Amino acid sequence: MMKAAVIHTPGGPENLLLEQRPIPTPANGEVLIRIHAFGLNRAEMYTRQGHSPGVLFPRILGIEAVGTIVSAPSGEFDPGTPVATVMGGMGRTFDGGYAEYTVVPARQVKVVPSSVVEKVGWKILGALPEMLQTAWGALFISLSVKGGETLLVRGGSSSVGLAAAAIARHHGMKVVSTTRSESRRDLLIASGAHDVLIDNGSIAEEARVRYPEGFDKVLELVGVTTLGDSLKTVKRGGVVCAAGIVGGKWVLEQFTPNELIPTGVYLTTYSSSVEAFMETPLDEIALLVAEGKLHIPIKSYRLDQIVEAHHEMDESTACAKMVVVLID
């Protein structure tokens, strides 16, 4: 048997119940992972609230996990191998990472060298997979960022926003991040932003005063509630990537492209995927974080604190990437 945080019906954080469940058995093409840590993501909050179509309950949530291989019936991995996994239906179509063990398809499992685990530790490693692949993928796949460019991170105090700012600055970009709260300015600066804009829902006018040429690239993490405003901050030939829904709204109503998108500005998206995760330089970034070369704040919890953690996620008070550590 194993401990798992199980949700039987959608609702508030208290609907997450710590239960004893049978350890799952992997089939051919699957692996059983003993989980050492897992990150918390807003996607899980939305599923918990009942906003993920097609999810059947009861369900063990969690779209990512790191740990060690217990068994792989088809022989893809040796027992004891450190690994990371994300997405692919975790926590939605099948039980995910909010547990001591999980079974996932072998195709979405990435080996982490033991030397990296020893240097980094499970807490840092557990915080990175989904956050990193979103930030990295949006920056380098969708936005094709380059050193010397200016980047606006809209929703900068989100975990992905903090990671994106740190990575972009490390790669030689000038980073401007937004936050709704003046009290978070120092956090954003410490995580990599050169400048901060206080976001009251409309920043385009102030951004154009301070950066009259406009930004080269914009990473839009708030979502459709601020997308139109973000598009106004970009220079001709610049790109906006819509990659988040921190604002809690999914659909852009009455979308008229030639009214929303300025002439010569490009709009794209980034959606997390197993394929993108497998290409993400997890080992390299984890070492940079452990060495203090990338500052990404991380806040850890125990499994029996999952309700408390979800309350903080609902209220957006953590100001860090949230991670549950089972075995350090």
UniProtKB/TrEMBL annotation:
<dbReference type="Pfam" id="PF00107">
    <property type="entry name" value="ADH_zinc_N"/>
</dbReference>
<feature type="domain" description="Enoyl reductase (ER)">
    <location>
        <begin position="11"/>
        <end position="324"/>
    </location>
</feature>
<dbReference type="InterPro" id="IPR013154">
    <property type="entry name" value="ADH-like_N"/>
</dbReference>
<dbReference type="Pfam" id="PF08240">
    <property type="entry name" value="ADH_N"/>
</dbReference>
<protein>
    <recommendedName>
        <fullName>Enoyl reductase (ER) domain-containing protein</fullName>
    </recommendedName>
</protein>
<dbReference type="GO" id="GO:0016651">
    <property type="term" value="F:oxidoreductase activity, acting on NAD(P)H"/>
</dbReference>
<dbReference type="InterPro" id="IPR013149">
    <property type="entry name" value="ADH-like_C"/>
</dbReference>
<keyword id="KW-0521">NADP</keyword>
<keyword id="KW-0560">Oxidoreductase</keyword>
<dbReference type="GO" id="GO:0070402">
    <property type="term" value="F:NADPH binding"/>
</dbReference>
<dbReference type="InterPro" id="IPR020843">
    <property type="entry name" value="ER"/>
</dbReference>
<dbReference type="InterPro" id="IPR036291">
    <property type="entry name" value="NAD(P)-bd_dom_sf"/>
</dbReference>
<dbReference type="InterPro" id="IPR002347">
    <property type="entry name" value="SDR_fam"/>
</dbReference>
<dbReference type="InterPro" id="IPR011032">
    <property type="entry name" value="GroES-like_sf"/>
</dbReference>
